[in-house]
Design goal:
single chain; 171 residues
């Protein structure tokens, strides 16, 4: 059996899957031509054939034993989009809203959570996570205080005991 020895096959696979995940969602599917344009814009010097994109998506979905990257054909174009299996957009937005409304998270921690949530979704949905803070409120910038208090709560719940928090430390 003679195998096709394409030295760029791994980078092609990773590039195609990564581009689909980061640049598409249910409302913004991506075509093979758009994938090729994005690959060119990234500076790679290879072309992607439509058949190999379909094979990459099929292999990716088989690996996860689920259809995470959806595909459909409309006219002459094949469309692909990533369907986030972990959180939907409103669940993630609710989490960020809770984090930003909490007074015990530092600004750095809030920005970190926002960035991590944004990275779960395509570039088209990242604007949903933009938040503005009222910086006139003076807050404790010691992140460890919150986590220490959280550990006290978790331990008390696990041991089914009462507990008291030092609220001054959290504000």
């Amino acid at each position: 059996m003679n195998r096709n020895k394409d030295s760029d096959s791994y980078i092609k696979y990773i590039s195609v899957i990564d581009l689909i995940i980061k640049n598409s969602d249910e409302k913004n599917p991506i075509t093979i031509n758009q994938i090729q344009d994005l690959i060119y814009n990234k500076g790679y010097d290879f072309k992607i054939d439509f058949r190999i994109v379909k094979k990459f998506v099929e292999n990716y979905n088989n690996y996860y034993e689920d259809t995470i990257i959806k595909t459909y054909k409309e006219g002459r174009n094949n469309y692909f989009y990533y369907e986030n299996p972990n959180l939907d957009l409103m669940e993630a937005k609710a989490i960020i809203d809770l984090v930003y409304s909490s007074h015990f998270f530092t600004l750095k921690t809030k920005e970190n959570y926002k960035k991590r949530m944004q990275d779960l979704f395509s570039i088209h949905n990242q604007a949903y996570f933009q938040k503005r803070l009222n910086l006139h409120v003076v807050k404790n910038e010691n992140e460890q205080v919150f986590y220490q208090e959280l550990e006290v709560i978790t331990k008390a719940i696990k041991e089914k005991k009462k507990f008291a928090l030092n609220i001054k430390n959290l504000l």
